[in-house]
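Usage example:
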Amino acid sequence: MTVFKYFIRISLKYKWSILAYVVIFFMLTIINGSNPAQGPASFTDIKLNISIIDQSNSSLSKSLKDYLVERNNIVYPPKDEVDGKELIFLEIADAIIVIPEDFEERVVNKEKAVEVYRDERKIESFQIQHQINKFISFVNATYENGELDLNAVNLALKEKANVEIVGTNNGNEKVKEWFFYYFNFTAYVIIAIYIAVIGMVMTDFTEDSIESRRRVSSKKNFKFNKEIYLGQFVLAAIITSIFILGSIIFRGKYIGEVQFSKYVINTIVFSFTILSLTFLVNNITNNRFAKNGISTVLSLGTSFISGVMIPHELLGEKVVTISKFFPTYYFVRINRTDITSLLDVKYEILMQLLFAMAFFLMGLYFSKTKQRV
Amino acid sequence: MKNLFRNILYQIKNSYRDKSFLFWALLYPIILAFFFYTAFNGMMDIELESINVGIKEDNPIEFILEEIDILKVEKVSDRQIEEKLNNEEIDVFIDKDLNLLVKNSGIKQTLVKEIIDQVKQMVKLNRPMNSYDFSIDYTIAKNQEANPMVIIFYSLIAMVSTYAIYYGIEVVSLTQANLSNIGMRINATPLTKFNFLIAGIIVALLLNLFANGLLLLFIKFALKLDLFNEVKYSTLLILLGNLFGVSLGVLIGVSNKLKANVKMMIGISVTLFLSFLSGMMGPHIKVMLESKFPLLGRINPIAIISGNLYRVNLLDNTRFVNEGVIILALYCIAIIVVSYVFLRRRTYDSI
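Running the assembly step on the lines above writes:
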């Protein structure tokens, strides 16, 4: 087992690279996990952070303010328009509402009456316009003989629909989300570490002088390869275990609430597929610099397009179609699927294994081509 | 002067022969920009899709719900309600007493709740239907042009502008006898080290500016994103980002005796950490820091560059840019002075 022993020894030379990835991964995990793990068990309205500048100071503007304050969170008002835009840019405020001096007159004349600066990046900021329009429409509906019945409007606006949440499992949505993002992100680090580190170790082994020495030695090719692949397998198993153990350390008490075995099996299958991909890369090139580049591009690229960094729903249709040509897509799909048994995701597991087989066969082809040269 | 030009020429040649330079300086930012664009493109036009609402046959407000464009109404039976909510086939179920059943809280559920609240409130207000006119929009929308993708691109440009940090580290290692063979040779010859260093800094600035230019051209012509409406301050900020990067690189290079790759690691960590704090890897970090430590955003060099690029180009706001420029310039001056203290009169017992 000399080859295996040296494989592990050389791998240890790259411990700082592995550690850097692991530390960054866990740092991001801690930051992402700083939100409370337990989600609300009851329905909560989306509340916006708004700021109101009331230049009218009338009873009508006061009523509108009270209504908006009750439904949203208030942040300190900006000094001027530039400051207001700055608050929205910094995401301190989702919307700034300016009630002009002649507000009441505009309302009665059914003219545009309130200026709204809204954060277009947030889809929920639409609702502020809806709230304002509803309030003014109600007020105008009570307009009779030059009088507005604000008391009736205020009373009516207190009516609310009753909302219930189905099922009993909704409380652990945040826990599920945490596991989903945690295991999704392992895809990025697994690709980056495997190709970079195993690639570097393999470069040391396949260096011309060492390769020549090995060829004249009594070590059989088959035995050499067997020990090399055993070394790769052990290194991959250690790295994958670190991430699986990490999830237990960070959220161990919640693993009963999520489909933990699904995440573990999926990560192991994915890890195996990427090991095959690493085998292919190692047979395509022996250049350290090229392997570093491939590691960065493949890990970042597939993570961006396959739903690791951004959910599938927010990716364009074409991007999702392209991502189906990479195993990461199927890995993420399994993580986001609620399953009753592994049979529910058999297609995705099979796809990952087929990718593994394809990478392995392609690797063999390149290896044979190299040998012929 | 002739020596300076010769040194500049040699160092430019030296850098372009280095494949890792070509990849990390020229290609990597472009690849990153392409990935950002591919991934965030779908987020450019955020539109609320239709909301699937489940009702039973006897729902009294079916005709109202059918009138609302955004709602897609579907009849469901009692036993289907939970199943359809759990499978996300419907977002909300409304019963005949106008109570809502949802799987979780969210914008779609909140919007349907607003609609049902409104129906209940209209009943309570008890005014004839024709007294309401919901077709009027009483708001004057003054939304600021914004999308998450643009902000990420400004952060990327800010980060890449400080990438001169790597050349700074490299240039110093070329002048130090304990770090490189060229350093040994330079120290053993009558060549002035200072001249070589100045040439290196000029090369670092030129090459990184060239790399920044390529990235901006790629963003403008390949990705077709118009990020810059304002030229004067944008150029100044990018230039200062470059100067900050190269001077910090020189400081990291001269201030310690660590190995070159450890220094590179420090450089990478510093730029990544500052980019991370400025919100490049998710706006929530920036939002959290902005609410708890607002000062940090005003002194973080990458946040100064990315924030002000956004302000001057999208918000037409130049209020904070002078402050940002002064802070960046002060950083550069302070770092250069400290580096100079480390650099002067450095001698070696043996080479």
